[in-house]
C-alpha cells in the first residue's frame, strides 16, 4: 500500500514538474512577445506622432503649388493673348504690304 502511494506521489510530482516547466517556458515566450510588441508600439508612436505635422506641411505645400499653378496659368493666358495680338498684327501688316 505504501508503495502505491509513493509511486502515485512520484508520478504526480513529475506531472506537476512538467506543467511547471511548460508554464516557465510559456512565460519566457510571452516576455519575448511583449518586448517585440513594445518595440513595434514605440516605432508606430514615433511615426504617428509626426503625422499631423507632416500632413499639415503636405497640405501647405499643395496649397502653395496650386497658387503657383494658378499664376502660371494666368501667365500662359497672357502670353497666348500677346501671341494672338502679334499674329493679328502680322496679318494686318501683310494685308497692307
Structure write-up:
With 97 residues, the protein is mainly α. It is built from 2 helices and no strands. It has helices spanning 2-49, 51-96. The longest helix is centred in the first third of the chain and has 48 residues, at 2-49. The relative contact order is 0.04. The model has no long low-confidence stretch (mean pLDDT 95).
Query: Mean pLDDT, nearest integer?
Result: 95
Largest sheet: none
Strand content: under 5%
Q: Structural class, from helix and strand content?
A: mainly alpha
Morphology: rod-shaped
Order of SSEs, N→C?
HH
* Count of distinct strands: 0
- Rg calc: 41 Å
- Segments where pLDDT lies below 50 for 5+ residues? none
Annotation field: number of helices = 2
Distance between the termini: 137 Å
Helix content, binned percent = over 70%
Overview features:
single chain, 97 residues, mainly alpha, 2 helices, rod-shaped
Brief synopsis:
By secondary structure, this protein is mainly α. It has two helices and no strands.
Task: Present the secondary structure layout.
Blueprint: H1 2-49, H2 51-96
Amino acid at each position: 500500500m505504501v508503495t502505491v502511494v509513493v509511486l502515485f506521489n512520484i508520478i504526480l510530482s513529475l506531472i506537476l514538474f512538467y506543467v511547471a516547466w511548460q508554464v516557465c517556458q510559456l512565460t519566457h515566450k510571452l516576455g519575448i512577445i511583449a518586448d517585440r510588441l513594445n518595440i513595434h508600439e514605440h516605432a508606430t508612436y514615433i511615426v504617428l506622432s509626426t503625422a499631423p505635422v507632416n500632413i499639415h506641411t503636405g497640405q501647405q505645400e499643395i496649397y502653395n503649388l496650386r497658387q503657383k499653378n494658378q499664376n502660371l496659368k494666368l501667365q500662359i493666358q497672357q502670353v497666348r493673348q500677346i501671341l494672338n495680338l502679334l499674329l493679328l498684327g502680322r496679318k494686318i501688316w501683310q494685308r497692307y504690304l
